[in-house]
Amino acid sequence: MLDLTSDVADLTAAIVDIRSESGDERTLADAVERALSDLPHLKVSRDGDAIVARTDLGRPRRVVVAGHIDTVPIVDNVPSHVEDGRLYGCGTSDMKAGVAVQLKLAALVTEPVHDVTYVFYDNEEVDAARNGLRRLAKNHPAWLAGDFAILMEPTDGVIEGGCQGTMRVRVVARGERAHSARSWMGRNAIHDAGAILDVLRAYTPREPEVEGLRFHEGLNAVFVEGGVAGNVIPDECVVTVNYRFAPDLSLEDAEAHLREVFDGFEVTVTDAAAPARPGLDDPSAAAFVAAVGEGRARAKLGWTDVSRFSALGVPAVNYGPGDPTLAHTRNEYAEIAKIREAEERMVAWLAGSR
Questions:
Q1: pLDDT per residue as tens digits for the range 292-331
Q2: Pick from 106, 119, 253, 335: CA 20 to 30 A from residue 32's CA?
């Protein structure tokens, strides 16, 4: 059982101690649903292991506060423990500290200045086809409707606008198979793939400014596949390349760029997710940055589910108490002071006192 009257750090520890690896979120989803159902100012709905709770106060604007309840696989880092002002445990940073802040907001702010939708969803840490927010957008798009969204992803307490897009492509070098004792009768595709790596080594990533935020792109080989047998000259070598691109490009722009960069090679897109523009000129977003971020924001150098909100026409930012560099590590932790700071700032903003 989750006690929403407890200190936010204690609540975070309780959430961490409920195992919720991707695909196994049922126990935590049940606990979240029970805790929210006890709050009379909220209407609670459920789809699978995603829980949505909404106020309906007739406010002129609605904000969505969202966070995923799943974690990567546990590696002897549950149950949680406290040491030197840090709460250690799987998911503390990514993103059960943020989920605890969401729950405290839901319990404490019964008369928010905006109507609020709280979204707690499953399967964020695995392939996109299983993503709970994606499923909600398909099954119940009205549940995600809003004028502004905050994704409680770990940002170390700094507001991060938008997100980068990501695209993976297979770049293929073709050769001609032959016996290695008569290598001159073939053409070695692995050798020819050196030209692909030369392109990557020489590539200079863009650092564009988008709506006042500086993004830093990246183009990197992440897999190399080649070889047939120890005595065969290979006729194919595949380099899988990951492109992280700024939100001034569309998916179509990104694909066109990669085909230009790797001109002369076969290029096949295997995976892609659209970026999201910062949208900080939206009145709700600007007010949030001023109140919670003290006027500061930076670019999100990665992909997050703000992209899904952007696709729904909802401007969104990332803001959470965890440190993203600690996500998915064995010694993952969240600073207790940062968790309490996030709660204080979010409560004050939503109550209209900040």
A1: 988 899 999 889 999 999 999 998 999 999 999 999 999 9
A2: 335
8 Å CB contact between 158 and 340: no
- Our separate counts of H helices and E strands in the chain read 10, 19
Token pair recorded at residue 257: 């760029």
Confidence of residue 354 (pLDDT cuts 50, 70, 90): low
- Could you read off the pLDDT of 213-244 as tens digits, one per residue? 999 999 999 999 999 999 999 999 999 999 99
Distances (CA, A) of 27 to 17, 23, 39, 49, 50: 11, 11, 20, 9, 12
Q: Tell me the mean pLDDT in the region 346-351.
A: 95
Q: What are the E-state strand segments in the chain? A: 43-47, 50-54, 62-68, 81-83, 86-88, 115-121, 148-151, 159-161, 165-174, 178-179, 209-210, 213-214, 218-226, 232-233, 236-245, 266-273, 297-299, 316-318, 333-335
- Whole-number Å distance between alpha carbons of 136 and 66: 12
Q: What is the CA radius of gyration of the chain?
A: 23
The residues carrying an active-site annotation are 70, 124
Strand 232-233 relative to strand 178-179, pairing: antiparallel
pLDDT digits (tens, 9 = 90+) for 45-95: 999 999 999 999 999 999 999 999 999 999 999 999 999 999 999 999 999
- The amino acid present at 221, given as its one-letter code, is A
Helix (H, G, I), strand (E, B) or coil at 23: coil
Other beta carbons less than 10 A from residue 329's beta carbon: 15
State how far the alpha carbon of 123 is from the alpha carbons of 16, 68, 256, in Å: 16, 7, 31
From the list 73, 70, 64, 72, the residue with the least C-alpha distance to 122 is: 70
Looking up tokens 């001159």, which residue turns up?
Answer: 184
First to last CA, the chain: 32
